[in-house]
Amino acid sequence: MKILLDHSLEPPATYCWRNEWRSPYDSIHNLLSKFAYLNTMSARHIAQLFLAYNTGYRTRSIKGLNISLLDSKHFEDELLAELFEIEVDKIIKAFPYPHYDQLEFPANRKLRFCLKCMAKGFHATIYQLDIIARCPIHGCDLIDECPQCESSIPYTLHPKWFNDPYYCPTCHLDLAPIV
User: Is the pTM of the predicted complex or chain greater than 0.90?
Assistant: First the structure.
């Protein structure tokens, strides 16, 4: 008996996306956060939808749910591009790797952000690069911990963040308040 699995990249018509929520330099963390928020999806649902089938990483990762967002190699880039209505090359640039050289531009494993950008629902891929210390838009230092409780947020597909995007997973501080 032969079992054939159809891993079609055709997205169900039930997902929502708003192009006006997307910025040209969005990180994959930001794109996935917005998608999770708009579609009321958990980290597990995001992982089941977007993790690549052919990497040998999928089953173990979905169980553990602490999936690094630093490298695109474990994700279905074409499906991400289709659902986010963006070109595949821009999806690849939303991840630090392979777009940047890992040795020349090491990336931080904690979410690094500008509070002013985060308040507007924006996070850029370059904020994760250790070489970038200040927000190029606002000129302020990037931070890697909650301003209230000082806990860090992992740069992963982490349940505590994606179950409630834009809130500190520890103290629940709103990091993107409506102003």
Answer: no
